[in-house]
Specification:
- The longest helix is centred in the last third of the chain and has 27 residues.
- It contains five helices and no strands.
- Helix content is about 80%, strand content about 0%.
- The chain is mainly α and about 100 residues long.
- The model has no long low-confidence stretch (mean pLDDT about 85).
């Protein structure tokens, strides 16, 4: 039975059908919306749990060092972008 289920899952995952089409073929009409809703609720719940567990931590403790460095390296480009946009805004007569 386990091998059969694994084969069916593999076959379903290898098709070009949408989630709605796969669910319809299983006799689950209009289930794609329900599935998306449940996935959204599940992911949101996981995020809220993670957020609550890490509420007392600073971003420095959460964000990996390589991403922190990438953010720091981006500051000069970001600063130039902001100045350029601000300059254009005021030169074109801010209203």
């Amino acid at each position: 039975m386990k091998i059969f289920v694994q084969a069916e899952v593999k076959k379903a995952l290898s098709t070009q059908k949408s989630t709605a089409q796969l669910l319809d073929s299983l006799g689950m009409k209009n289930s794609s919306f329900t599935l998306e809703q449940r996935l959204h609720t599940f992911i949101l719940g996981k995020y809220e749990t993670w957020s609550e567990e890490n509420r007392s931590m600073s971003l420095k403790d959460i964000v990996p060092p390589h991403l922190q460095q990438k953010a720091l390296d981006s500051i000069p480009d970001l600063s130039r972008f902001i100045v350029k946009k601000g300059k254009g805004y005021f030169e074109n007569g801010a209203s």
